[in-house]
Amino acid sequence: MALTVVWLRDDLRLADNPALHAAAERGEVVVCYVLDEVSEGIRPLGGASRWWLHHSLTALGASLKERGMELILRSGPAQAVVPRVAAECEADAVFWNRRYGLAERTQDAALKASLGDGGYAVRSFQANLLFEPWEVTTGSGTPYKVFSPFWRACRNRPAPRAPLGVPGSLNGPVTESEDLASWRLLPYAPDWAAGLRETWDPGEHAAQSRLQHFLAETIDGYARARELPDTEGTSRLSPHLRFGEISPFQVWQLAGADSGTAAAGDLTVFMQELGWREFCWQLLYHQPDLATANYRPEFNAFPWQQPVEEELDAWRYGRTGFPLIDAGMRQLWHTGWMHNRVRMAAGSFLIKNMMVDWRVGEQWFWDTLVDADPANNPANWQWVAGSGADAAPYFRIFNPVTQSKKFDADGGYLRRWIPELRSAGNVHEPWKEGVSGYPAPLLDLKASRDQALSAYQDLRQA
Predict the structure, then answer these.
(1) Distance CA 77, CA 239 (A)
(2) Which residues form the Photolyase/cryptochrome alpha/beta domain (predicted)?
(3) Is 100 annotated to bind ligand?
(4) Catalytic site includes residue 340
């Protein structure tokens, strides 16, 4: 009987997994995940993502075991490990779902060639993006640089395919597997993940439950509620999508099926969030160094200031003296997640008030976010900096006081994450009353804003 090795990557699910589905249709299956932390160009996971990966693999392994299957775990360079697994199992095919970073594509192409030369049938599948990055281009065949026309072009294409179900039957031989605990993905000495454990439930079942809860309880009013950090107004699907515990096709179908009950405006905004994810991946596909190089090269001349470590730590750990920034950074440290409105404010503060290179913030978020995505994270940081595609105008500087007054008027979010302010009268501007135990403002908002605007203006005129 035909036997296929399914090499999983950022697609840790059984439902709507095209590679797994096709493999099950042709015969026996061996499901393998390779922890590759040594291949050149592939970005190592940050600490919070490693925590999520451990639990996601645990959940996937349990789901496979319920079906009489084992999840095979191996570590090392995938270029060597995948062929070794195929040979051990006496497989005749290797299937996987596509990746879109340059290093990953290069690795996949090399493996496809070498495995093909070795007599294996090799197939790759579209699984984690609604639209392939090379399919959505301008009339002249170039990549889109602005989101709105990109998303219009996507919507004018044939509708995304319907998601696939879980294969009806899965069976195959068992081969040697490494012990997940030996990978030491979980933090130790110290164990800083208590907040992650109390906030998240990784895995495919949890992803499906979260989506269904969102569509049943949260989608109504989403267009406004998603802006309010003290409200459960967002889907919180981002880490599940990042690790492929749920596919965008599943989200698209279920959200579309909900169109009869949810307000059209709320659904449109939610679908646009999926579209922004697609846009970011298109950017990464066409600019592989998105996390390290300015998308707009003119920003190479921007006068970033060398950060003072004490001031940088004040931002990292929520001690800037500006409640919205501090609440967001403390939420991030505790839960591995931050509300998107606050992410924009925290990013703007680092870049445009502290004048720190956006790459410093991108790296911190990469290490601390459970949804640290290779495309979304750098694209969003560059959007805030003004150096990216479809970027925020250079003069858009998020005032943390104005933002908290507008989107957290009663201060519930601020007080939740900053215990020092729970009895403060003026929670948005505590320095006006002098709150004991809470730091004074790190900088002058107006003076730092003027400095940033001057630097941006100089750059535009250069």
Answers:
(1) 25
(2) 2-130
(3) no
(4) yes
